[in-house]
User: Fold this.
Amino acid sequence: MTKIGKVKIVWSRSLPSKPTSVTIIKDCAGRYFASFVVEINPEILLKTDNSIGIDLGISTFATLSNGDKFEAPKPLKENLKKLAKFQRKFAKTELGSKRREKRRLKIAKLSYGMLRKHAKIKDIRTDFLHKLSTDLVRKYDVIVLEDLNVYGMVKNRKLAKAISDLGWRQFRTLTEAKCEKYGKEFRVINRWEPTSQKCSCCGFKGGKKELNVREWTCLNCGTFHDRDINAATNILQVVRPKTKVEIVQKTAVDNPIQLSLFDTVAGGQSETLNKTRSRRKSSPKKDANSNESSTLPEFIQLSLFE
Assistant:
């Protein structure tokens, strides 16, 4: 390459067809990336007829409405001490001096340099978000997210670093792009929906809850909820609501015991009264024989055979 020389290439994947153009990109850590433009046939994913609601959080990155939870790697938190050490060394140089620029380039070339450390943290986060978004798009036809005000949330100095380490906005962007690419439906609900306050079973609003309240019981129906799973279920129900009438009807149709009970009383009130009156009529009494354990059934049996 001109002005660069020979560059060792590590292929991330094989090219599906002959490239029409290539662009070389250099990042702040001194790494070079080659971006190829190729023609491909769009991949068609089979329909699964499944829908999912996703609640994004800090302690657990993503909680699905079916109960599945995904933990984020949190690369910034894991490497925060090492990163601070490299930054202190870099800050000791004088601003605008040649030594500072020389130190910056020197650190960037080190395998554990400051800029390379930032790049490694970004790569870990991006890899996790790509894998999770691709897995969700392949499994579900409808994906529903909540419109979070990330810009306003990072102004909280206690949560800003943790929120930035998760990459909520990048996850939404990747998921939306992949849904559009593979023909899946991506929906975003209003951020003012009370997903954490409302019971997903009966719809009762129990009021705002602090972040440390992870589990709670509905005061109306008594259902015990996991905060994140309940919120994810409410997010899905905003787009795909399910009424309790439909659930009860489906249960009655699928339950054979319930149907047999209805068939017993299907004769009507008059038939029921006739059966009751016939049972109340007293039958003629007969003195018991010492050789007979029961006289009435035997008497009826003999009269039938005669």
The first helix runs from residue 75 to 78. The chain is about 45% helix and 15% strand. The CA atoms of residues 142 and 267 lie 47 Å apart.
